[in-house]
């Protein structure tokens, strides 16, 4: 009795090639993928670069709600009936983005188990990150929120080794992401540098001592100046 053919579908190859319902775009720094209020009709995948998500309230206040890296999806709200984009997405550096139409995405999820597994793993990871961010915002000081953000941006806790933060991120952006003022972020960044937790050499380099300070119960973060 013949064995059924194995599914040789490679989800990353699928995402890296143009095909039915898929297109690939190259964006320069500062270019938008979509803006808040646009029609939500596709899902996007980052092949290269970094993407910033920002939201503007009805009162005109802008907040950075996320930074995405290669291997991550965004715009998936269209699969859940979201008619319009609720955020603006902007390239923080030269980026390569795959656009997958809503119909093509649904077809791939229904017909390609490996792709469905990849997307589900992304959703679960993102959901965990959202929960962690909420807990961080509710219970941690702005200083500790900044420390955690820097560790995340430098890839601490991931399989890849920690790296210098590759894109230039202003103190205003960091302040928006942790819900603090720019002056507080400036104070904490200077403190972290003085204590040897971070260094500047064209890019922000985060040292493991910052992770140790966050993890131990009575950390250097509590030191008074």
From TrEMBL:
GO terms for molecular function: DNA binding; DNA-binding transcription factor activity. Keywords: DNA-binding, Transcription, Transcription regulation. One of its GO terms (cellular component) is cytosol. Residues 140-210 form the HTH crp-type domain. Residues 30-102 form the Cyclic nucleotide-binding domain. PROSITE patterns: CNMP_BINDING_3 (PS50042), HTH_CRP_2 (PS51063). It holds the Pfam family cNMP_binding. This is CRP-like cAMP-binding protein. It comes from Bradyrhizobium elkanii.
């Amino acid at each position: 009795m013949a064995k059924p053919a194995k599914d040789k579908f490679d989800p990353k190859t699928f995402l890296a090639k143009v095909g039915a319902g898929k297109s690939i775009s190259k964006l320069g720094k500062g270019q938008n993928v979509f803006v808040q209020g646009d029609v939500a009709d596709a899902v996007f995948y980052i092949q290269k670069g970094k993407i910033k998500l920002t939201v503007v309230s009805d009162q005109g206040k802008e907040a950075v709600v996320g930074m995405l890296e290669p291997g991550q999806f965004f715009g998936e709200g269209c699969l859940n009936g979201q008619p319009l984009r609720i955020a603006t997405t902007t390239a923080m550096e030269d980026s390569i983005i795959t656009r997958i139409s809503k119909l093509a995405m649904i077809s791939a999820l229904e017909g390609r188990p490996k792709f469905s597994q990849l997307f589900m793993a992304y959703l679960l990871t993102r959901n965990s990150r959202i929960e962690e961010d909420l807990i961080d915002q509710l219970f941690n000081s702005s200083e500790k929120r900044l420390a955690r953000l820097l560790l995340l941006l430098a890839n601490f806790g991931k399989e890849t080794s920690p790296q210098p933060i590759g894109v230039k991120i202003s103190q205003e952006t960091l302040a928006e992401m942790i819900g603090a003022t720019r002056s507080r972020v400036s104070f904490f960044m200077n403190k972290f540098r003085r204590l040897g937790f971070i260094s500047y050499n064209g890019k922000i380099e985060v040292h493991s001592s910052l992770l140790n300070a966050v993890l131990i119960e009575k950390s250097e973060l509590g030191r008074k100046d």
